[in-house]
Specification:
Elements: H1 18-35, H2 46-57, E1 62-64, E2 77-78, H3 81-101, E3 103-105, H4 111-114, H5 117-124, E4 131-136, E5 144-147, H6 153-168, H7 172-175, H8 179-182, E6 185-191, E7 194-195, E8 208-213, E9 220-227, H9 231-237, H10 242-249, E10 253-259, E11 262-269, E12 274-279, E13 285-296, E14 299-308, E15 313-318, H11 322-327, H12 329-337
Antiparallel strand pairs: 1-3, 2-6, 4-5, 4-6, 6-7, 8-9, 8-15, 9-10, 10-11, 11-12, 12-13, 13-14, 14-15
Helix pairs in contact: 3-6
Length: about 350
């Protein structure tokens, strides 16, 4: 763990202000977890998660273009229903061309699909009527669209794009006319048996950075987050019901937070925007709200605003790399403070 405030929450003397609260919630939790190895259950690596998921889907053959186009610019990009319909009309020929002239792709090398509920649902769907779309540009367009049982590839593509566009329209910043959000649309990544864009579009980070801040004192703690899933969870979610899939498409996730010292807390981000932080060492609970702001390396990125029963406030920047945390810290903190 590192701190970048002048008064570290691990060294500051007790005061009636919230710095002591941050020490209690983050600093003390990390110190105790460093000493007591059994303060939480084991964390499973992405390698283990992919191996378990791949045991079920290894026989599913996908295809990618011999010279795939990057997931940028106008390629397979739609901002409205008319554009989605136009892309859908050409989806069948694009898929057929990819399967006929492309090369086989191992699903295990598409973590965005293999290691997510939405992606596994797509891979396990039967027939050609399946498609996957994602908000674009991904950095500030947080939405996913998924079709699993359409009559044709064309209808699947249109359904996935339309679902993704509809999800974007529910995002507060898009509704309020934010300049970045105004450029948002959705891109078709996969349809039928074909991956339609370059492999890097299907990458997904094993873990993400989280910065926890006391908005009043400026004290901060750097953490790492991993999805709280083990082999048993993956097998259970292989047949995720409609409610679980709907929540996953809205960004719901359970994250295990840790530092170099060890496990620290559990962060629950729910589909309805609610957020809950449970500290491992003493069971302290903070509740509040979160908002997805986009994707980073195939994972949701966003901000959370949390408050403990005694009034302690905490802001969390979730999924942003350290460099972006530094350059956009003021803007991201301001976005989080809007949630209090």
């Amino acid at each position: 763990m590192r701190t970048d405030a002048k008064r570290s929450p691990l060294t500051a003397s007790p005061s009636p202000h919230v710095t002591v609260g941050l020490y209690a919630v983050i600093g003390l939790a990390l110190l105790i977890c460093a000493i007591v190895a059994a303060c939480s259950g084991p964390l499973f690596s992405s390698r283990e998660r992919i191996k378990v998921a791949d045991s079920d889907i290894r026989r599913i053959r996908l295809w990618q273009p011999d010279r795939p186009k990057p997931a940028t610019g106008p390629w397979l990009f739609a901002k409205d229903a008319a554009a989605a319909a136009a892309i859908a009309r050409s989806a069948g020929s694009a898929v057929a061309r990819t399967v006929a002239k492309g090369r086989p792709a191992d699903a295990a090398f598409a973590p965005l699909l293999v290691d997510t509920i939405a992606g596994r649902s797509l891979l396990r769907a039967a027939g050609p009527g399946r498609a996957y779309a994602i908000g674009a540009p991904a950095a500030h367009c947080p939405a996913i669209g998924l079709a699993l049982a359409a009559a044709t590839v064309e209808k699947a593509a249109e359904a996935a794009l339309s679902q993704c566009i509809a999800a974007l329209e529910t995002r507060p910043r898009l509704r309020s006319g934010d300049r970045a959000a105004a450029s948002c649309g959705c891109r078709l990544l996969a349809a039928g048996d074909a991956l339609l864009v370059a492999p890097e579009a299907f990458a997904r980070a094993r873990s993400v950075s989280v910065l926890a801040l006391d908005p009043d004192s400026g004290a901060s703690a750097a953490l790492i987050a991993e999805s709280r899933r083990g082999p048993a969870d993956l097998k259970a979610s292989a047949t995720a019901d409609a409610a679980a899939l709907k929540s996953a498409l809205a960004g719901a996730q359970s994250l295990a937070l840790r530092s170099a010292a060890g496990p620290a807390a559990q962060l629950e981000l729910r589909a309805n925007g609610a957020a809950l932080l449970r500290v491992k060492s003493d069971g302290a609970v903070l509740e509040g709200r979160w908002r997805a702001e986009g994707f980073r390396r195939g994972r949701w990125a966003g901000v959370a605003a949390l408050r403990r029963a005694d009034g302690l406030r905490m802001v969390m920047l979730i999924g942003y790399e350290p460099d972006e945390q530094k350059t956009r810290r003021a803007a991201l903190v301001a976005a989080a403070l809007e949630l209090f």
